[in-house]
Amino acid sequence: MPGRRSFLGWLAAGAAAGGLAACSSAEARTYPVRFSDAEWKKRLTAKQYYILRRKGTEVPGSSPLLHEKRKGVFVCAADGNVLYSSATKYDSKTGWPSFWDVVPGSIGTSVDFDVGYPRTEVHCARCGGHLGHVFNDGPKPTGKRYCMNGDALLFRPA
Fold this sequence. Notes:
The protein has helices at residues 2-23, 37-43, 46-52, and strands spanning 72-76, 82-85, 89-90, 98-99, 107-112, 119-124, 130-135, 145-148, 153-157. With 158 residues, the chain is of the alpha+beta class. It has a single domain, classed as Metal Binding Protein, Guanine Nucleotide Exchange Factor, Chain A, CATH 2.170.150.20. β3 and β4 form a beta hairpin. It is globular.
């Protein structure tokens, strides 16, 4: 039965892809800023913990940082790592704070299959905290859309 074999083949491929994604995930790496899970829970708010440590996503349109227009920098809420300049922030109309470029060396990426297809996850290079995802549909000059969870960020005015 070709239909059944095809289905089983796709099922096996999906399982293998998920396993490969787990091998390249941010959680499998060692970061300079490390704490136990219990310590992260003490240091972060419930929303920050959910997003940064459990790869959660905030409700679109819920972050005050979505409307932040002052000059300054956006930092990781877990460790203060400077991630984005306000000069690269733009309104992507997605409901999440978006940037077209990143501070060099501040992030890492990995592939996740959390929604059933591959996406490029963005995480903090210092603590490994989940920040959001990057897509190739942003504005010039980079063409990137770093779509971030506002609860994973803090804003520091200039």
